[in-house]
Amino acid sequence: MKTTPQTDLSQIDQLKALLAAQDTTLLKQEAKISAQSGEIFWLKEQLGLSRINQFGSSSEKHPAQNDLFNEAETCESIEPAEQAPATETIDGYQRKKPGRKPLPEDLPRERIVHDLADDDKTCNCCGNELHQVGEEISEQLDIVPAKVRVLQHVKLKYGCRGCEEGITTAKALKQPIPGSIASPGTLAYVITAKYCDALPLYRQSVIFDRFGVDVSRSTLSHWMMKSAELLTPLYQAMRRQLLTEPILHADETTFQVLKEPDKAAQAKSYMWLYRTGGRSPHPLVLFEYQPGRGQCHPQQFLSGYCGYLQVDGYSGYNNLENVAPVGCWAHARRKFDEAVKLAPKTKQKTGKGMIAINTIQKLYRIEKASKDLDADARKAVRQAQALPILVDFKQWLEKSEAQGLPKSKMGTAITYCLNQWPKLMRYIEDGDLSIDNNIAERDIRPFTTGRKNWMFSQTPRGANNSAILYSLVLTARANNINPYRYLSALLTRLPNVTIDDDLNDLMPWDIVLD
How far apart (Å, rounded) are the C-alpha atoms in residues 12 and 5? Predict the structure, then answer.
């Protein structure tokens, strides 16, 4: 069959169309393979990170940062002082001997005198009688277990012999739990043990039993509920004070409540933490229980607040009314740390992850050097020294973002920083702001530690009361007050306070402890 030029052209067009279709198919297959390769890479990273979290060290220190983390190396050659500190007094002159840090001066002392036997009080040289010329004192820390006693409240009665009609009985102060055997000191002891030292109530019940006192776990739980209800007005006063502060920190963690309405027992609830900035003269640490993690919860708690709020990257803190969010450089650094741990060993010291970590550490060096300056001076140092580093770092992040896999750990860390950049930059605006949110993470840790021991709350009421008790304990600690002494004073005075009384004198920075 004879072909014409038109027939040849038609066949050529068909071949071109066929090749184009094959090219399109190949491109789709390549894209699919590339996506699968990226997904495989991401899954390998997740598996590697899971293994590191389970079996590896949780430290974020790296061998390339010898100038930053050299405490162990510096102290390696120093032997710990095993001998207690001692003083020697000779003819009225007191000389200190080397030893550990002295024990606190306010602790009670009991003198145990070691003397020579009478036969040894003569001189070996001349036989004359020896006389005392001084003394050598060494100290030991001695701990006496908790002392249990019974307080008898005796109300004297008076009658009239003239008319023999009425009898007048003396009135006693109101107790925190009417009709209960628990004194304010006992309640403070149990609260401190659980909410400060993470000692569950069932273990405390066993401890009471060793003292010969039968106090069941349910009784201890009842004491905690009633104590929290008594302390609620002070908690509310603290919340009002908190909302007047210019700088706040916030964090949240999961919490299980078994009998939460309309939720399964296994569902997650949340304990939220809000606290004042680290430079506040009136430190406050407040917990709030909520059944969820939605934005409505911080919005409700911070209603009426106007100021800075330092948080991690959780989006629930975004767009709160009258709130300027501040980012956390510790979270940003942590993401690069994860990327470094997953990188090949040959690149761990010189790769992009370590470049980012070293850059962030430069910012922390500036903070360490300026920590004792006032707010204005600290702001000036940040503007002069930290700002140029931040500008260069952002340019490096933008350049690196275009070169890496977006779903890899390194890509995730870079994307996090760029998405959080306005918040991460904000700390240089005010010298009282912190570079990170570590202070909130530190204060939420007692709750997460206790959660490992007692695991859950039965009811929302119990969860709310736990939030109140944690708030009082950690606020006392933030003000350098012994939580037991503070709670004991509160539980003694609050039952005798009327609704119109001012609670400011019960705040930890104003209260006078006995």
Answer: 11
Task: Using the structure block, give the residue that is written with the tokens 């680290």.
Answer: 278
User: Around 509, how many Cα atoms within 13 Å sit in the side-chain half-sphere?
Assistant: 10
> Which DSSP helix (H) or strand (E) runs through 274?
strand 269-276
Tokens of 282: 């009136």
- Report the distance separating Cα 355 and Cα 364, nearest Å: 15
Helix or strand holding residue 330 (H, E): helix 329-342
Q: Where are the beta strands (DSSP E) in 134-217?
A: 134-138, 157-159, 167-169
Here the tokens at position 5 are 């030029």
By CB atoms closer than 10 A (0-12, 13-18, 19+), residue 430 is buried
- Domain positions in the chain are 157-233+488-506, 328-435
* 320 close to 304: Cβ distance less than 8 angstroms: no
314-324 residue pLDDT tens: 988 998 999 99
Gyration radius of the chain's alpha carbons: 34
- Provide the CA 95 distance to its chain's centre, in angstroms: 42
Answer yes or no: are the C-beta atoms of 466 and 195 closer than 8 Å: yes
Distances 394 to 311, 414, 421 between C-alpha atoms, Å: 20, 10, 8
At residue 207, φ and ψ (nearest 5 deg) are -65, -45
Condensed to tens digits (0 to 9), the pLDDT of residues 180-194 reads 999 999 999 999 999
pTM of the model: 0.77
pLDDT digits (tens, 9 = 90+) for 471-504: 999 999 999 999 999 999 999 999 998 877 889 9
CA distance 292 to 269: 5
Number of Cβ atoms within 10 Å of the Cβ of 31 = 10
Instruction: At 400, list the tokens.
Output: 């690196």
Q: Are 454 and 201 in contact (CB under 8 A)?
A: yes
